[in-house]
Structure formats: structure tokens, C-alpha cells
Structure to design on (367 residues):
């Protein structure tokens, strides 16, 4: 009997869970950040970032394939022992707690800045926490269904990005290519780290995947979907805004949608922002699940309901005490990007090499 038969997920849910973790609030400011680093050549950095995330994701799957029924917690305990293994799990728990908190903070700041300026920030987070609890408490199978449903309900949003192109846009902004050389493009690649974070959820998803032989295909498809989405929105922003003016907007994607008007509705960007919150929830809900899954495993418990409640109350309390600003959010985002560079990009490669040496060592007669 399979260890996680009750919580199994399909390949489609596996893809949308990874893609959902990646496509969050980062895309709203990504064109501006890339333009500051590499001008209109910043879109090339997205391709490089997508390639790097795909390679790191493949290493995650290859490591998991050696232990098909083990989650990240089980793998770390197996390879490093209880003390060191649990210490690393604690690091991952803290990382996922702060990552989910930053995504929630960003979503709150966008909603407060564009829709609910008079509403206290902790009230907005509390409202986010209610549906989050009911989804996250039910396990990865339900979260996978939720992510799949939201994807089908919201993928049409990308079509509205084409409307502003009819009024004012020019592809001359992109020429000449590599106007500042490859150096500026390579400097912009690290800025894509935060937008591609999240594929490390594959460590947690692999034991639940029904058709594990397609795990590599799934993580490649998920990264391609994320890369194409970021590339699509960035290219449209670069075509609509001039290379100089795009850096004046904190969230150029929202400013782009602001020009969309219909006879029956003027501020269509408000509607899209409200709907896009469901897309962002596909990032923070699985991330909260990863955090509480690690914490419950550390406590030797299977039920993580209480962990979800404690984590959400902690985030609400922190917002009530701190009242974060945009500048603080960007600083935290940079910090989590640095941590993600180590835990999400470098650690899978190191873990794969270590597990390979570990298996060779034990197959040599130690067992």
C-alpha cells in the first residue's frame, strides 16, 4: 500500500502547484526591476532565470527519485541523521514561514494601495487567513485541486494585456539588442530569483505524485509556463512604456492595466487586481502548507491543523505590530531571494551529489 495514497495528486495538479508557487506578486514589479538593471534587454534575463530554475528543479526530482516515498524531511533525516537533518528542516521551516509571510504582505500592500486604502493592514491579512486555513488544513490533494481550479478560472487575464498595445506601443524600444552588452543582462538575472522561487515544493509533492515517471516532465512544463507568463507581461510592458518611463512606476503591470476602459466600466484594473488575488493565493497557500508540514513532522504529528492556526495568527500579529511599508517589503523580498538562492537553487545540486555519494558508499558494502 502506498504511504500517501489518500493524498495523491495528478500530474496536472503537480504542474499547477509548482507554477502557482512561482506566479505570485513578483510579476507586478518585475518589468521595472529588470529595466533598472538591463533596460529593455531585461527580458533575456527571464529566459536565463527560467533555465536555471528548470535545471535546479530537475536536480530536486532526481534526488527524490532515489527515495520515492520520502518527503524532504525523511530524505534529510536519512542522509544526515536526526540531529543535523532536523536542523536543516528547521531552516527550511523558517524559510517557508517568511516566504509565505512576504507573499501575504505584498498582496496586502497591493490591495491596500489600490482598493482599500482606509482598511487596517491586519484586517486584510485576517480576511486572507480565513479561506487560507480552510484550504491549507486539508492537505496537498485539496490544495492541488484548488490551484488547478484557480488556473482554469484566471488564465484569461493574460489576454487583457494585449488591449493597451492597440493604443500606444512600439517594438522599436527593443532595438538594438544587447545595447549595453551581456554584462547588464547577467546582472539582471539575480533579480529574477524571487519571481521563480517556489519550485522547491517538488520535494514535498513527489511522494504524493501518482505518475512519478513524469515528474521531470511536470517540473519542466511548470517552469516553462512561468517563464512564458513573465516573458509575455514584461515584453508588453517594455513595448508600451518607454525605456525611461517604465522605471518611474513601482508596479508597471498595474499601470498598464489602468488604461483599459469599457463603456460600462472605467477602472477595469481594480476588477483584475481583485481577481488576481486568487492567483497570488496559489503561492502563499502551498507555501504555508510546506511550512506547517515541516513543523508537524518535527513534532512527530500527522495532523497540522494547529500548526496552520498558529502560523496564521503569528503573521496577523506581526502585521498588527509592524505595519510593513513598501520599502520594508522590498528589503525582506531581497533577503528571502538571497536565502532562496541558497536553499532553492544551490542546495538541490549539493543534495543530489551528496545522496549519490551516500548511495555509492553504502552499496560498497557498508550496509
Amino acid at each position: 500500500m502506498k504511504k500517501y495514497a489518500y493524498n495523491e495528486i495528478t500530474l496536472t495538479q503537480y504542474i499547477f502547484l509548482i507554477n502557482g508557487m512561482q506566479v505570485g506578486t513578483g510579476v507586478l514589479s518585475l518589468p521595472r526591476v529588470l529595466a533598472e538593471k538591463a533596460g529593455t534587454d531585461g527580458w533575456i534575463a527571464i529566459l536565463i532565470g527560467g533555465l536555471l530554475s528548470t535545471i535546479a528543479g530537475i536536480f530536486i526530482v532526481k534526488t527524490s527519485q532515489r527515495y520515492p516515498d520520502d518527503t524532504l524531511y525523511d530524505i534529510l533525516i536519512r542522509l544526515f541523521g536526526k540531529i543535523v537533518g532536523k536542523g536543516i528542516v528547521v531552516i527550511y521551516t523558517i524559510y517557508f514561514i517568511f516566504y509565505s509571510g512576504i507573499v501575504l504582505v505584498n498582496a496586502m500592500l497591493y490591495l491596500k494601495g489600490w482598493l482599500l486604502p482606509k482598511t487596517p493592514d491586519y484586517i486584510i491579512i485576517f480576511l486572507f487567513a480565513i479561506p487560507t486555513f480552510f484550504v491549507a488544513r486539508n492537505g496537498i490533494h485539496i490544495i492541488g485541486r484548488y490551484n488547478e481550479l484557480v488556473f482554469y478560472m484566471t488564465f484569461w487575464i493574460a489576454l487583457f494585456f494585449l488591449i493597451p498595445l492597440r493604443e500606444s506601443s512600439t517594438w522599436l524600444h527593443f532595438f538594438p539588442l544587447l545595447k549595453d552588452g551581456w554584462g547588464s543582462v547577467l546582472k539582471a538575472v539575480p533579480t529574477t530569483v524571487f519571481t521563480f522561487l517556489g519550485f522547491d515544493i517538488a520535494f514535498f509533492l513527489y511522494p504524493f505524485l501518482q505518475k512519478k515517471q513524469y515528474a521531470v516532465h511536470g517540473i519542466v512544463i511548470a517552469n516553462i509556463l512561468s517563464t512564458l507568463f513573465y516573458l509575455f507581461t514584461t515584453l508588453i510592458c517594455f513595448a508600451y512604456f518607454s525605456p525611461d518611463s517604465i522605471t518611474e512606476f513601482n508596479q508597471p503591470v498595474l499601470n498598464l492595466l489602468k488604461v483599459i476602459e469599457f463603456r460600462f466600466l472605467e477602472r477595469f484594473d481594480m476588477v483584475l487586481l481583485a481577481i488576481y488575488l486568487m492567483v497570488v493565493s496559489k503561492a502563499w497557500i502551498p507555501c504555508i502548507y510546506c511550512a506547517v508540514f515541516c513543523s508537524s513532522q518535527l513534532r512527530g504529528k500527522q495532523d497540522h491543523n494547529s500548526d496552520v492556526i498558529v502560523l496564521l495568527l503569528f503573521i496577523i500579529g506581526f502585521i498588527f505590530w509592524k505595519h510593513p511599508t513598501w520599502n520594508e517589503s522590498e528589503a525582506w523580498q531581497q533577503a528571502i531571494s538571497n536565502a532562496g538562492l541558497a536553499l532553492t537553487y544551490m542546495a538541490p545540486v549539493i543534495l543530489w551529489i551528496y545522496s549519490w555519494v551516500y548511495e555509492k558508499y553504502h552499496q560498497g558494502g557498508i550496509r
Q: What stands out?
A: The chain has one domain: 7-356. The chain has a mean pLDDT of 87. The first helix runs from residue 11 to 22.
